[in-house]
Write a structure and sequence with these properties.
With 404 residues, the protein is an alpha+beta fold. Among the domains are: 86 residues, Pdz3 Domain, CATH 2.30.42.10; 155 residues, 2-enoyl-CoA Hydratase, Chain A, domain 1 (Alpha-Beta Complex), CATH 3.90.226. The chain is built from ten helices and 25 strands. Strands 5, 6, 18, 19, 20, 23 and 24 form a seven-stranded antiparallel sheet that branches. Strands 15-16-17-21-22-25 form a six-stranded mixed sheet, sandwiched between helices. α6 packs parallel to α7 and α7 packs parallel to α8. It is globular and about 75 Å long.
Length: 404
Amino acid sequence: MVTQNGQQPVATSPVHPKSNGISKPIFIVSLAIMAALGYLVGNNSGYILASLSGVKSTTETIDLSSVQETFRILKANYDGTLDTQKLIDGASRGLTAAAGDRYTVFMDMEETAQFEDDLSGHVSGIGAAIGVRSALPTIVRTIPGSPAEQAGLKAGDVIVAVNDEPVQDETVDQIVQKIRGQSGTSVKVGVKRSEEVKDFTITRADISDPSVRSEVKDGIGTLTITRFDRDTAEKAREIAIQFKKQNIKAVIVDLRDNGGGYANAGRDVAGLWLKNKVIFTEQQGGKVVATERSGADAPLEGVKTIVLVNGGSASASEIVAGALQEYGAATLLGEKTFGKGSVQQVLNLSGGRTLKVTIAKWYTSKGKNISKEGVTPDKAVSMETADIDAGRDPQMDAARAALQ
């Protein structure tokens, strides 16, 4: 579906979700944000396609004379050079922030360009994902074959410096921007591993990280989805069909630390198990404005399935997890999901800038909005910091044991 201004609807996600101290990652050098044009549901870096259409507008204006007064006094008295465009962007950013909704944000030209680059999963950087663990910026995973992996960075490494500058007072987003950069250039990343501080000088490269990966082991197919982008549903369906051809006896779907993506991708992935079912609805002002149903072909219908989730599983991930759980098509294992049930629309502004605005809420098939509550797994299995540091995965182990 396309809106009146040619944009597709999406939904957005949370900021720095946490579960047991482990957060949804922001993909610093490899991937990150799941949607650029449309309505978003998800987490700070994840989004999902919603089905609302039409772009509302108003002729109403507000009196900005006080802003002009601030500018005139600032201009007349400031001892330095002022960047007029930065002042304008700052005013727009402040206006948007005053709405009091952390998912409604203004993005300048640079942020918009990065947002769109991240959507594809093709960026220039080191190939690592970072999140917040125990309130510290931490490597969540490295992409196989990436500069980060080849340099020796590991999941669990706490980032303490970038280019010899301490980052203890910086947000994950700020650290991400310092680490990513042009292919062929180098960045120095300081990390704390256990009690030892290590420095890694890494040459950035063009990174591509597919949203879907799979393997078959001991008759069990594992489908790992890191985000829900434009190609995710199609890729997941191809894998599901291959699973059936290989006569797999069960499936594990790994949605851990998946911050979301396009809502229709979440709907279609759930549709691999659910045939002609309501997957979720969208509401504005308490009124249902859209109902999203799965299709008629569900290649994995009836196949025993376990879905792995944690506090970093948000938005589109929660759509999939919630639908499969409510219809009894899968068992959820892990930790409670983030809880992101609102929908945003990304609108183009002049000069390559964009505005992301919360425009609706989404509800599960049983009418539940999971904002701030998340989806509770059927079987709780935690992943402690010590497990990650030691390279253990008790959640995956428990899923495989349950399916053997």
